Fold this sequence. Notes:
The chain is built from five helices and eleven strands, in the order αααααβββββββββββ. By secondary structure, it is α+β, with helices and mostly antiparallel strands. The chain folds into two domains: 8-88, Orthogonal Bundle (Arc Repressor Mutant, subunit A); 93-212, Jelly Rolls (Sandwich), CATH 2.60.120.10. Residues 102-192 form the ChrR-like cupin domain.
Amino acid sequence: MTRHHPDTLTLMEFSAGNLSEPHALCIRLHLDQCPHCRSRVDTLDSLGAVMMESQPQVGVSSDMFDAILSRIDSEPDMTETYISTQAKRMSPLQKLLGDDLNALPWKRQLGDVSVLDISERFPGQNEQVVLQKLAAGGKAPAHTHRGSETTIVLQGAFSDQKGVFNQWDFVVLNQEDEHKPVAVGCEDCITLSVLSAPVKLTGTFTRLLNPFIR
């Protein structure tokens, strides 16, 4: 079960079609496995359609915005009744990368970390889109972020000072966050991240490598 979700504002941006293609992919992957967030987006889609039909020329006031947020938060949780269609269709991840994440042409980066930059698969985007694999039981170098980083866990799990992030969990980090992820469980942890700027290594020795990090 997913425990870490996109916030309401992010889901609103997704519903409105305002997210970049890589960010929207992260949301879609989460929604495929999270009936709670899927229900919230369905509500947002419905509310958006009603607003477009009834008030096509009227902007959204702050009171209306707050009312929409309250409406979304009050919607019943459909987790128990949601039936996933994942098995009936090819997921966006399969279309992009195929069925076996472990068979991808990974490149060893530092210690227990391997990476695969797939930014070229999103032409016209300014963000870096990268897959990261942390070996089972391994530790990633301590780092912070020069910009924002949106991550979804595709396989396995990792932990840091904020808790444990399992498969399909969603996390957003920024310049205020410094962490050192550790892969937990018996399989490699694979994540998909969208970065607005390169990470910044903060370890005693690894920080010397910052000039070489894209």
